[in-house]
Amino acid sequence: MACLAGATLAASAAAADLPPSAPGVITPTSGLVTIESDLQKADNSTGVVTATGNVRIVYPDQRVVATARQAQYFSREGRVVLSGDVDVVQDTGHSIRAERLVVLVERERIVAEPAPGDQVITHYRLNAPQPKPGSQP
Predict the structure, then answer these.
(1) 49 DSSP β-pair partners
(2) Which residues contact 39 (CB under 8 A, 6 or more apart)?
(3) Of 14 and 92, which is predicted with more confidence?
(4) Which letter does DSSP use for residue 22 in this model?
(5) Are 120 and 109 in contact (CB under 8 A)?
(6) 21 or 135: whose pLDDT is higher?
(7) Residue closest to 33 by CA, chosen among 54, 3, 53
(8) Which residues pair with 101 in a beta bridge?
(9) 97 or 135: whose pLDDT is higher?
(10) What is the pLDDT of residue 47?
């Protein structure tokens, strides 16, 4: 899921017209990211990029799609916040569903919060270890 953050950063830094080498701005991973939403705003004075309404973020290089009601990138803090019916899905089957998802980019960590009375739901596909050639099961 951290790859999604890097993808969002790339698009957000470009949208905010922030140079990748600016102090406090994380240099993102490469690749094309598409952010679709009803409204997108960038504020160069605060370094905050906001997408609202039917937000859909597609990062084909990492095979990740995220949806939410709002997405914000706080460039000075290296933080991405997805809120409102957040759903992040990788084509590997990994997914997370929450009301709010905070990505701490520099620390490569996420914090998922449920809606009141709900739970965060994560699906993670575990791969069984493959036996080494010539070994007995």
Answers:
(1) 42, 73
(2) 51, 52, 53
(3) 92
(4) S
(5) no
(6) 135
(7) 3
(8) 82, 112
(9) 97
(10) 94
Q: Which is nearest to 72 in space by CA: 103, 113, 115, 117?
A: 103
Structure tokens at 92: 């590997």
What is 48-97 written as a DSSP string? EEEEEEEEEEEEGGGTEEEEEEEEEEETTTTEEEEEEEEEEEETTS-EEE
Distances (CA, A) of 92 to 32, 63, 81, 88, 123: 19, 8, 23, 12, 10
pLDDT value of position 136: 62
> Model confidence over 98-137: pLDDT tens digits?
999 998 878 889 999 999 999 999 998 887 666 677 666 5
Query: DSSP state, 137?
Result: -
Neighbours of 18 (CB within 10 A): 20
Cβ atoms of residues 100 and 81 within 8 Å: yes
